[in-house]
Amino acid sequence: MNPQPPPEGSETEAITAPALREQYEGGATVAELVATSGLSYGTVINRLHEAGTVMRTSWQTRRMRDGQARRNLAVRLRHLYEQHGATLTELAAAGAGTRRAARRLLIEAGGTPRTTQQTLRIRSAADAAVRKKLAASLRARYEAGATVPELAKECNYSIATVYRLLHQAGTRMRPQHRHGPARRAGKRA
């Protein structure tokens, strides 16, 4: 059974098509107009068409409504990308959702996506300072009498890595100890 149409001159007539169009173009959805006006969904749609309103798709409405939030996210992601050397995968985890969305947001914020090699160079430059500090620390401990195997065990690095860091720090190495039988001086058979 269909409801009776409202009598002429009622408050539903006061909600004009131009007023609905203005609210809709301001970002309101059809569902919100239905809730605030008390009109049926079909009546709201008819009045919007009557006023010559160009209807949006749902994604256009979301983009329109989330415009400022999207811009803020894009700026924050660009800062992480350019200032901290974050990858697209890290940007996706920071709020973009996917690598593709992160790339799109980065471009919207005026950023330029890097190649993998550029990202690796940025990361290695940041790690270089940490490694240099570690190498200086290992050198000081080695020159104080610690052995390479002891340093490797303390730092949880391989012996080869400790040697490499010591060489990078310019450490003058002590002679290696020979383990095993002593060599005899003299003629070889």
TrEMBL record:
* Name of the protein described by the UniProt record: Helix-turn-helix domain-containing protein
Helix-turn-helix domain residues? 18-57, 130-176
Q: Where is the composition biased (Basic residues)?
A: 174-189
- Residue ranges, annotated region (Disordered): 170-189
